[in-house]
# Entry
Amino acid sequence: MALFMPLVCSETWRKILPLRWLAAITAFSLLSLMPSKAGAESRWSQGVFPIVQFQGYTSHFGPRAGFSGAGELHTGLDIAAPLGSPVLSWWSGEVVEMINDRACGLGLVMASGDYAHIYCHLQKRFVALGQRVLGGQRLGSVGVTGRTSGPHLHWGIRYRGQWLNPDDILRAMVKHKKTARSFGP
Ligand SMILES: [Zn+2]
# Structure
């Protein structure tokens, strides 16, 4: 399994990206802007951050260097957290897919209207296929299943089949919290 470890969710993304990726990065950035952000952003702000014991971001969304130097697209955000710590659902929705494979490890997909959100590398799952889940409800615990070199959550979000950059959603959530504070009691 050591062969697969550098492929996904490792620190290797920090390497300088080859120039030939610039086109891919540009294209990918444009893709992430495709959904109508004006309408979506206010709804994103209601989301719940999926990690309780946050330790840091270990890999961001977008093209990165994979094993053997070949480029790959990282379709989510990697959030490091202690092994066994809670993973929460970003939004209310329904569990539509249970995953257990070599890349994602133990994972699941939630559907919330036009959005699908995926959670990977879990240690345990606490929900069942078809179950309705509230935003902030515990889906599982952080693990090291699948292609990963350490305990973290791989969190990805799709809008009508198009991958979004989770950074954009997190920014909207932070902005909302700041606004709530400044106008709160
Ligand atoms: Zn990842």
About this structure: The two ends are 53 Å apart (CA to CA).
